[in-house]
Amino acid sequence: MTDLAAPIAAAVPAGRKLAETGQWALIFRRFRRHRLAYASAFVVLGLYLVALFAEFVAPFSANTYNARYTYGPPQPLQFFGRDAGGELRFMYVNGYKMSFDPVALKRSFVVDQNSFNPVVFFARGEPYHLFGLIPWDRHLIGPADPSQPMYLWGADRLGRDVLSRTIHGARISMSIGLVGVAISLFLGLLLGGMSGYYGGWIDEVVQRSIDFMKSIPTIPLWMGLAAAVPANMDPLLVYLWITIILSLIGWTDLARVVRGRFLSLRTEDFVLAARLDGCSKQRVIWRHMVPSFTSHIVASVTLAIPSMILAETALSFLGIGLKDPVVSWGVLLKDAQSILALTTAPWLLAPGAAVVVAVLALNFLGDGIRDAADPYA
Q1: Is 105 helix (H, G, I), strand (E, B) or coil?
Q2: Separation CA 296–CA 308 (nearest Å)
Q3: How many distinct helices (H) and strands (E) make up the chain?
Q4: DSSP state of 179
Q5: Are 95 and 117 in contact (CB under 8 A)?
Q6: Which of 165, 192, 221, 316 could disulfide-link 255, Cβ–Cβ 3.0 to 4.6 Å?
Q7: pLDDT tens for residues 310-339?
Q8: What is this structure's pTM?
């Protein structure tokens, strides 16, 4: 009996400790067991860190060009090689060899395996202001000799580094999802909460408005709203308007989720107790009902961010969204619209790979949060 009682006594404190664990701790514990979602969380964090420190991470600025290397092919990063002088180089790229086609009257570049351009960490390059405040001229990686080319992902039609422009484009494309979802979250909580809590004619008006907005084809609606933005408007204001346009379309799904949760919660005992205790309607909504399904809201928001990113990419790709000199993934992909550009420089599709990675990581993260939102299941 004594031998059997020891494991039971040890299990009781463990079970009591689990029962006393808070909701968010239980959600995180279950989220960590979802390995794909847990790994995706680090990918998403890395993408936002790259976007935040874009000037430092990118080898060059977004608009630095060298017409001499138009459509230069990618120079793969090499490790541990000896240059012509026999000196060992830890990190380097091979230079270019230019050839001229007299028939097509076109220059072309090939990577010269006998040419060595050393690459270093914390390279001195173009000066910039980190966060718009701190003057600096160091980059995470760059050529030891700034006059030598280093196009890890190739160059575009103006001789601009595709990798650097993709890194700078992450700031717009990733932030437009956050800002757009924040506005959609406010509208979804406000209108969906009013619809589910009050019911009656308010519910009818909100739901029929949602039905009307969802019945309109998405792309024509985007085009109509984007056409209202003046062509000569400041790029920052265009960014603001595109964010508002996406938010005005993206709040409908979240509003219906919030409405369903309010309909199921407004008859719960803790809500009735709060009403009988004299709490105002606003306090019942924001202090009692909304916190009870915060985890579901977080999951919905996480899954909505990829939709915002894809929407901005589609708008910019179609030419009705952001435009030069603003740099976003959609603007970069617009350069790859023609067959001629793709046959000449297929590496212009590299920003599309960034879109795929970001959207997949955010979707996996949202799935993991959604599965972990109910830790008692």
Answers
A1: coil
A2: 19
A3: 14, 4
A4: H
A5: yes
A6: 192
A7: 877 777 777 777 777 788 888 888 877 777
A8: 0.79
